[in-house]
Amino acid sequence: MPELRQDPASREWIVFSTERAKRPDQFRTVTVREPRPAYSESCPFCGGNESQTPPEKFAFRADSKPNGPGWVVRVVPNKFAALVPRGDLTRRHESGFFRKADGVGHHEVIIETPRHDLDLATMEADQIEHVILAYRQRYNQLKKDPRVEAVIIFRNHGKGAGTSLIHAHSQLIATPVVPNLIRERFEAASNYYDDTGRCLHAEILEKELEVGSRVVDENDAFAAFHPFASHQPFETWIMPKAVRASFGSIRDDECRHFASILRRALYRLHEGLDDPDFNYVIHTASVRDENQPYYGWHLQIVPRIMTPAGFEIGSGMTINTSLPEQTAAYIREIEVPEAIAVQ
Prior knowledge:
The chain has six helices and 15 strands. The protein is an alpha+beta fold. It has a ten-stranded antiparallel beta sheet with strand order 3-4-7-9-8-13-14-12-11-10, sandwiched between helices.
């Protein structure tokens, strides 16, 4: 029997079509990824090729000089930026009706490793910790720009998720307006707080831990679970147990725990689904609302193993063919080694 479930974070209804459900192991991808060398001369993100990128904005280094080799994580402006830090935000009209303004903002690339053959799923936790610390540094730096209203940190993995360069990297876009999706999620959280006096995301985490069947991992500071109304099979949320609205407030000790649980979640997807294409995004409050008590930042991982079709486009509803209780049970069985062997 099909089932409808409502996502409490967005108020969206999701269709679970159990009649056409696949077993979790049937979601393994058929894409074969070619082995990669540790260094590629043509890759602008490889260590030693720093002259192929714009000058860096930030880097974790030992004693090496900026814009040269010797870095651990490096942040540079995107060469093909969606938004740029110059221009005029004054809104103008065309034909007295259509509104427009210059595309002012920031678009940066976080290069996660100097090695061409590594990815987050195959890195050690201390390297991922440096990536998260770079996220935090750039988030807190860019929110100081008075023109910035929201900072979106995201990662595309694989062609099906929109990536063009295979070298491990994330991106950050700081926008001069609050995107509608952020407004809608914040409004749902605000309404819930008005009704109950409780933080919606703290409640979601509490209930998922209480039920337990969708939880896939947990440590002292974070929990990972496949949410009750997952939009896609194997969708995974990672939430801090100390719920706060802004990702920028993450503490050093929390960064270590976040790196550990993120590594484990991505490794399990890598092994359980044969390295699927995926996107992840850090959902965080807009800059002006980051001290509000009714929102909780979290990371959402969405494997790209289903393609939206006519119903999804026409209705805005998603059809999910696998229940999160089933996918969570499958993914929990995958053992994660303490260290990952790298050639």
